[in-house]
Amino acid sequence: MNPSRLRAAAIALGLSLCGLGAVQAADLRLRLMQTSDVHMNLLDYDYYRDRPTAEFGLARTITRIQQARDEVPNSLLFDNGDLIQGNPLGDQVARAPAREGAVHPAIRVLNLLRVDAANIGNHEFNYGLPFLRRTLAGASFPYLNANVLSADGRAPAFTPTALLEREMRDEAGQIHRLRVGVLGLTPPQILQWDRQQLQGQVQVRDMVETARDWVPRLRRAGADVVVVIAHTGLEKHELPRLSENMAVQLARVPGIDALLLGHAHAELPGPGFEGYPAVDARQGRIHGVPAVMPGRWGDHLGLVDLRLRREQGRWRVVESQSSLRAIFDRARQQPLVDADPMPAVVIAREHEATLAHIRRATANTDTPIHSYFAQVSDSLAVRLVAGAQLAYARRAVQGTALETLPLLSAAAPFKTGGRQGWTQYTDIPAGPIAIKHVADLYVYANTIKVLKLRGAEVRDWLEMSAGQFRRADPRGPAEQPLLDPDFPGFNFDMLYGAPGELSYELDLTQPARFDREGRRISDGQRVQALRWRGQPLDDAAEFLVVTNSYRAAGGGHFPHLGADRLVIDAPDETREALAAFLAEGGVAPWAQAAPGWRLRPVPGLSLQLRTGAGALAHDAAAAGLRLVRELGDGSALFALEADR
Predict the structure, then answer these.
(1) 106, 165, 170, 270: which is deepest, by most CB within 10 A?
(2) What is the pTM of this model?
(3) What is the distance between the alpha carbons of residues 520 and 181, in angstroms, rounded to a whole number?
(4) How many whole angstroms separate alpha carbon 455 and alpha carbon 457?
(5) How far is the CA of 376 from the CAs of 191, 246, 511, 624, in angstroms?
């Protein structure tokens, strides 16, 4: 080759190498999209109120998904569990006879959405393992979980991880083969919450230990990016192994590039996590790891936008931003997007069957039944559940050695607004009670359990419930909020005997005795004047307490509760017992009974409750409250009357 041609070839080779270097140096942007805790709200329809809604529903989230996909060249879509249970549609599908080869309606929707991978949440286990396995079999994408093990503990019970290989376009327009490793995790507490369904069939492992094991395996398998889909939330303090909300601890596991979170129905990024150690509530990072949690019921789409750079032969995350895209403007009470029509077409048959079922009347009430004030006063909505449990348990103990023991019933309000939204309250008008109203009163697929406890342990049960309230400070501001917003309404148990048998008061100037994890933090005595049949409750006496499967198995971290206290392990759902109780005329006796408990007002203080504006249609004075003002965002402020 002559010198001029040699020089030309060298120049061409140099330019080619320069070009190759430019390709390798170009950054690649990857968008991770997440839904979580949809709870069968596939449509923008509220089955409890039996009408369309703009506040939640995957049908509207899908519009956000399509918009977010169209904005970027590279994206992946994930679901983080608690998909198949949570409303009457989910129950209707689970009740229907299994048809060979039929695909669950929620899975049909996710298949059409082109979901890349999904995680198994804790509520996926509510209907039992056979139903769950049939459901997952219909998915055209990998369904993951790594910390639920086989009965002998030797192997994962489900597919633990996935290595997704996708062609991605970098910012220079070049195509790269990117391998995204995905790991699924769920709370170990499934063995408590669904003990009846899972005992002897699976074991569980700590989520953090599982991640430490599997993340390096994904790296060794060639993962360029590792995404952990963890059905777990965040706590401010350090937690022991096998805890429920381990996001902060998971973020410390080396090798994780992004955390997709759920379970807590909270919103990250967002002001609710300001002040949490190691959490950047604005950028959406935990210990520097990009993270997102998209609320519940499809009210937000979660996004994690990653910028990847090729360095030393591997892709590294050099920049991230997490964000949420709402479907509804809560402040203005306006929808932000329209519903995508696809889910309504895909699940039309199941939707119509659900409507036919929930509209069937079973009983009647002369009194409105609502939960707007249920966290601060004795509520008929809660009393009816307690009464149904008592009636069931009386029949269960009849003719046994347990029949002579005094019987109590624990029940809590499930629909209490707040994070759920200011329309999310039980609100049943006087008149016919339909199946939808029964489901509104009791929204979970729990079963009935009976525990045996001493009187002192019953007192601690109430002290734990009283942790719902902030401490009232007589020397503090004249206006003080009543509720701790981090305390779930479904953990505010009220205890009842038959009408008139049990009574007590709560003194909120006392410190809480237990924290939310059930740890004793003081000798506070918020529970006052605790009486059984007119006499002070005997701390040494034995009681039977009827409750639900979640609480009996330790859900909510109540002291003294657990499987070792179980004396009746009933298989029947609380909702079934409630429907039968209402049909037998159970409303009137409890509607006419005197309140069993009350809050002691604090002279000089206005203790305030924020609740849904629907409360304006009900008698606040009967609950010992007065209206302060309507807040204009679907909520209203009430104050505890000091002279009641």
Answers:
(1) 106
(2) 0.81
(3) 41
(4) 5
(5) 32, 31, 17, 9
Pick the closest to residue 485 from 471, 506, 465, 468 (CA basis).
Answer: 468
Q: Which amino acid is at 571?
A: P
Residues 293 and 263: their CA atoms lie apart, in Å, by 9
CB 567 within 8 A of CB 544: yes
Using CA atoms, how far residue 420 sits from 272, 485, 615, in Å, is 14, 12, 16
Determine what percent of the chain is predicted with pLDDT higher than 90.
86
Pairing of strands 117-119, 143-144: parallel
Is 260 within 8 Å of 36 (Cβ atoms)?
yes
Q: Which domains does the chain have, with CATH numbers?
A: 24-352 (3.60.21.10), 360-594 (3.90.780.10)
Q: Give the confidence band of 13 by pLDDT, cuts at 50, 70, 90.
A: very low
Q: Which of helix, strand or coil describes residue 410?
A: strand
DSSP E strands, 97-211: 117-119, 143-144, 148-150, 161-169, 175-185, 202-204
Peptide bond into 269 cis (omega under 30): yes
Task: Find out whether 144 and 182 touch, Cβ atoms under 8 Å.
Answer: yes
Tens-place pLDDT, residues 205-258: 999 999 999 999 999 999 999 999 999 999 888 899 999 999 999 999 999 999
Which residue in the block uniquely carries the two structure tokens 């209707």?
92
CA distance 410 to 385: 9
Q: What was the pLDDT predicted at 25?
A: 53
Beta-bridge mates of residue 363: 433
Of 427, 478, 389, whose CA–CA distance to 615 is shortest?
427
* Res 612 pLDDT > 90: yes
pLDDT bracket for residue 643 (50, 70, 90): low
Q: Output the six-digit token pair for 29.
A: 């942007």
* CB-based contact 626:641 (threshold 8 Å): yes
More confident residue, 432 or 97: 432
What is the 3-state composition of the chain as percent helix, strand, coil, each rounded to the nearest 5?
30, 30, 40
For residue 148 the two structure tokens come to: 């639920």
| Residue whose C-alpha is closest to residue 294's, from 480, 526, 58, 89 | 58
CA distances from 323 to 168, 290, 462, 509 (A): 22, 10, 39, 40
pLDDT of residue 207: 98
Cα distance between residue 597 and residue 537, in whole Å = 14
Instruction: Calculate helix-pair angle for 380-397, 574-583, nearest 10 degrees.
Output: 100
- What are the strands of the beta sheet with 479-481, ordered from one edge? 479-481, 606-612, 635-640, 625-630
End-to-end Cα separation, the chain, in angstroms: 106
Beta strand pairing call for 202-204 and 267-268: unpaired
Q: CA-to-CA distance for 638 and 159, rounded, in angstroms?
A: 50
Could you tell me if 64 and 327 are in contact, meaning their C-beta atoms sit under 8 angstroms apart? yes
Structure tokens at 301: 């789409």
CA distances 40 to 107, 298, 338, Å, are 10, 9, 19
Residue 148 sits at the vertex; the CA angle it makes with 145 and 151, to the nearest 5 degrees, is 140
